Model the fold of this input.
Amino acid sequence: MLKEFKEFISRGNVLDMAIGVIIGGAFGKIVTSVVNDLLMPLIGIVLGGLDFSSLSFKIGSAEILYGSFIQNVVDFLIVASCIFILMKIINKLTHKKMKKKMEEAPVKPADIALLEEIRDLLKANKKVKKTAK
Done:
């Protein structure tokens, strides 16, 4: 079981995924900082000095922090937009590579090429025998 786990971990896809998760986490922190420290204060100024982080209301003894929710929604929309744009770029590049491969002449397997060569030699041999008669 340990051997299978080592094989699973050493696969390229798993390592790529782990790197993606780590970079994604760091990117998420940057976006959160941009939203909380730059965008939301600017939006608050435009809306008349409103501080979104302090927006809340009480229901009984519970305090509902909807300002924090608004910040998280903006945070999510920025991350989702960045991922969408990145995926569009990757898909466009991948599509170009696939199209280029499809345009290239298909490579025949070696055994098929050998059989075709034998066929052609047999045909040529028959023509030589017919002309020799």
Observations:
- The mean pLDDT is 82.
